[in-house]
Amino acid sequence: MFKGKILVTGAPLSPSTIMALSKADYKVGMAWDCQGQVREISNAGYNMVIVNEIDEISEEPAIPGAQICGQIRQASDAPILIISRDKDPHTLANAIAAGADYFLREPLHPVELVARIDALLRRHREIANYMPLQYQQQTVLSLAL
Asked: I need a surface site. Which of 44, 77, 81, 129 has the fewest CB within 10 A?
């Protein structure tokens, strides 16, 4: 049963992780540049975004997730999950402040990633079904005052 579409940006996921997501009935798309990812989220109906800060091929860090989250948030309210090796709590706080919903540190097992994605999407759908969008926007605006 199809669970949803996930957009991966930043750096590619490992083949074993992509295979685990496919076996869990997720369709995975990829966008490597900021303009491409915002366009993809807006036009292709992705349910979630994974920002992967780890380039598995070069072992070098990719673009920091906090830089990408703001642009993604302008295009979509889809959950954003960041994968990183960074252990600095300030990096985690900055990513969440920029719009990330969850932050996972490497190393992680693909089974854990699938479980986290399932939970994030379940909560996101429950919230979306619980309150009409107009009410959500009014609530956010009144809290900002």
From this structure: 129
Nearest-5° angle of CA 1, CA 47, CA 121? 75
Could you tell me the pTM of the whole model? 0.79
Domain made up of 4-144: CATH architecture: 3-Layer(aba) Sandwich (3.40)
What angle do helix axes 15-23 and 110-130 make, rounded to 10 degrees?
A: 50
The conformational region for residue 101 under phi > 0 = left, psi -120 to 50 = alpha, else beta, is alpha
d(CA 115, CA 17): 12
Are the C-beta atoms of 131 and 62 separated by less than 8 Å? no
Residue 61 has what pLDDT?
55
Q: How far apart are CA 84 and CA 82, in angstroms?
A: 6
- The half-sphere exposure of 81 on its side-chain side, counting CA atoms within 13 A, is 22
What's the mean pLDDT in 65-87? 85
Kindly report, residue by residue over 10-24, the tens digit of the pLDDT: 888 889 999 999 999
Q: How far apart are CA 138 and CA 93, in angstroms?
A: 26
